Amino acid sequence: MKKLEETQIQELIEKAISMMDHSYSPYSHFHVGAALLAKNGNVYGGCNIENAGYTPSNCAERTAFFKAVSDAICVVGGMNKVLKEYAAPCGVCRQVMMEFCDPDTFQIILATSKDQYEIFTLKELLPLGFGPNNLK
Ligand code: ZN
Fold first, then answer.
1. Cα(71)–Cα(81) distance, rounded to whole angstroms?
2. Which residue among the candidates 61, 85, 99, 124 is catalytic per the annotation?
């Protein structure tokens, strides 16, 4: 697994927190920001975008994912942007990650601040995941 440097982790957490400002969450008031580290080193931001029809809503992680194939993602979130506990990716987002990432090496950083974070692999958050390899 590619070891993330501390400066990269800090950059991702900072970007994810700043992306919460772009969140459109008038219904849940649960603001989520995400920052995705692409294989080329670029960092892409994402935020949750709700919809009155609910189904078209998009989570922060997938907003970021639709932009790039990547090595790691940082996700933060909380009611009215208050980060009290880790906001783990929902099941749909984990499945989308499964499609584009290696579950053994893709790293998911969950943070409440730049000092408080934990790193998980996709496999830890989606054990026995069903992905492209199952269809080969
Ligand atoms: Zn999600």
1. 26
2. 61
